Amino acid sequence: MSTAAVEPAPRAVTLDSNRDPVNDFSVVVATVNGSGSQTANNTLVRALFKMGIPVNAKNLFPSNISGLPTWYTIRISKDGYVARREGTELLVAFNPATAAADLQSLPRGGVCVYPEDAKFERSRDDVTYYALPVKSLIANLGVDKKLVDRVANMVYVGALAELLGIEREVIREALSYNLSGKQKAVDLNYNVVVAAAEFVRENLPKQDPYRVERMDKTDGLIMIDGNTAGALGALVGGLTVMAWYPITPATSLADGVNEYAPKLRHDPQTEEPTYAVVQAEDEIAAIGMVLGAGWMGARAMTSTSGPGISLMTEFVSFGYYAEVPGVIWDVMRMGPSTGLPTRVSQGDVLKAYYLGHGDVRNICLLPGTVKECFEFGQTAFDLAERFQQPVLVLSDLDLGMNAWMSEPFQYPDKPLDRGKVLNAEQLKAMEGWGRYKDIDGDGISYRTLPGNEHPAAAFFTRGSGHNASAGYSERPDDWVSNMARLARKHETARQYVPKPVVDRREGAKIGIIAFGTADPAIVEARDRLSTLAGIETSYMRLRALPLGDEVTQFIAEHDRVYVVELNTDGQMHQLLRLHAPEHAMQLRSIAYSDGLPLTARYVTEQIYEMEQK
Amino acid sequence: MAAAAKPGGAPAPKMTTNRAGLTKPDYRGLPSTLCAGCGHDSIASQIIQSAFEMSLKPHQVIKLSGIGCSSKSPAYFLSRSHGINVVHGRMPSVATGAMLANRTMKAIGVSGDGDTGSIGIGQYKHFVRRNVPMVYIIENNGVYGLTKGQFSATADLGQKLKYAGTNELMPIDLCLEALVAECGFVARSFAGDAKQVRELLKAAMAFNGTAVLDIISPCVTFNNNPDSTKSYTYGKEHEEVLQDISFVQAYEEVEIEQEPGTVQEVKLHDGPRILLKKLDRSHDPTDKLAAMRLLAEAREKQEFITGLIYINESRPTLVDLEGLPDTPLAALQDDKIRSTPEQFASVMAEFQ
Question: Does the CB of A295 have a partner CB in chain B at under 8 Å?
């Protein structure tokens, strides 16, 4: 596949595992964007998943409605690894424009499945070819002309089913799942699958070793993308006002709210919605609506990506300083500017943490799995209301838009944390209340909400200088004491935010720190470093900013700590050096960003090579 | 119109109380820090008077503003109401979120011609388009005061300012913009005309939807030259009043004394009425095209017309469109805003 052109050249030391041709290989489906291959690909993935085989799929797509090449990679891994792999064994070459280049990226002994009339040079003689008579198969079925294009992709589904041994009945169920049980559509597509499979069985004898076998490794699991998971988490986490503006790759989070809110959040008695969703005119309006609702006491959020958080900057400073809760999901993509809008990155770390003008440090959550996307749906609101400030959730395109296997999500057992809000009676009982007074010494003040009938409840919220009782003030001492309290609040937040997940290995002198979707590559790389090079590593996966003492402790425990992230400037590495300057020399940055999800091979090779120095 | 007396005919107490049991000082704000004679302060005092006469409960009112001299003024009225002074030109979005979160609030937004006409024109138009319930007051003086005298987008063509020179661009007419965005309540007034401001404010407070009130409010420091249409002198000499307006609350009995045909009555959703006594110029404020024509002609002739330009309460508000429950979203109990375990289990099953 041509994306290989931007991958680092293979190194002298290749620490790649030997692959088993059974349940341990990858398939890349190369199509033209907009050709409707989504149902076909989803059907393949779901069928493999339902056969109990660990699977992960990634859609590597262009920023385009139709006509540009797109690659859908499916990794089948009996060991349960879900990181992207460099190189795939099977190629479905359904895009003539990229077929020749895609063919070059196959390993020796690879497989190429293509439409028989595709015009590209079969330049490799170490690859097995299977030519499919797509047009005649469809024509023989008498498919309505208008539907031909839509079902043509089912030909490769049928061919792969036969070649790899994917059970037909499972394919049928997967089709039904993906087509929401619409029987006519299921039948039509399934007929194409069967016709293609029969053709392969009768005419194309199997000449390659790759196949799948049923396993039981996905029993009880679900498959879901991170944006949908985040939407579900927010909906059971008390979301009541959602304001958003379309932007890839965050749009599907709002779609998820729109899709599942009617199922989850209509009052069973009155059938009335307990939420409002507004598509705003831009990201500035979206965050304005969120803060207006948060000021009023609602749990409000928006979903966006890099350009969106840039536009929200002024409002985030306002929310931080006026102390108004709100949640911003930043589903990260490549920047700067428009960057590569359909490609993954972890490039907003520094920007998000310091988003604002003046002295601002924001609470950021760093989900690394779809399950955490779900859990942080509520956690983000809890933190926003507890700390009375905007909270950012830094997901990314790979996590947000691709489907991942997961344990099913549990209905949250923790109550909503609504923070320090005083009603009229509580206000009456409290002596000497001031909106920005630090009564408890944790930097968090008590707030009242509009509608509170106590005559002294009202205050004027402003982004300009204010004293402890919310009065306008330009006094230097008021400014200094308020900022000192905000700093104290940030220290309190350090203890409150989700702790890192740590896996220590006996005797490991090397540590790895990462976050988000770097995780799958690191999990796999650690195994490879251990089995192939005898290098043992401990691993800390960060889940929030600000960083806590346990991070310093982890760094201190290791001779060298590699900070792995998907950006170019080593942004988390920079934050860690600021956080633990006394250990700065132990920290080594592995920052790499090319728009594609991180691979275990890259991480393995980087650490291995740097360890040789 | 006199303030509503407390029913029962008891001897008038020293301080009159309204139907909410409050006195006028209960609606006051902090002392103004604006320049002496600023039109914005006259408007603030009419907001205080109107809120008192309307017997608004201060805790049921929210005050919102953006940035600028106008946006400072919510601190100078209704101290017992929560207020929020947000970022420049973005008050409408904050008001949208606030009203979605609590539909029972009465929102009073105060903006200026820079805040609404320049940086905030996009949010203004989308807010009006969504018909978010709020009294949207624009304190319009054609100039940026806090930054010492730049032209705003409503400055007159050919206007001269010490700082900025001569304005060579046509002004944006914020009433016309509101009409184009389907606003159901469009009025223009003059800060020097206290009674008209007050009656329009009360009508706007009773209106269900976005009520735009563009009030020419002279800036005594930077834009009060007699040749400026935003000056006191010009306003007093050139104001052409469309109607003599009276706002009548639902509980008030007012005999219409005038001859039939000389008073137009507009009823609002829950009982109050606006009485419009026709003056020289005939204008039907329920006729949208007539309203547009009126504004367009006034703009061509640089005429300064004031009064109720357009009213139509029929368009659904954003609160209606969202189908929100009577209980404010922000007041729903925690168990109402996190779905039931059964609902959740059935959704989770879809992913298995």
Answer: yes
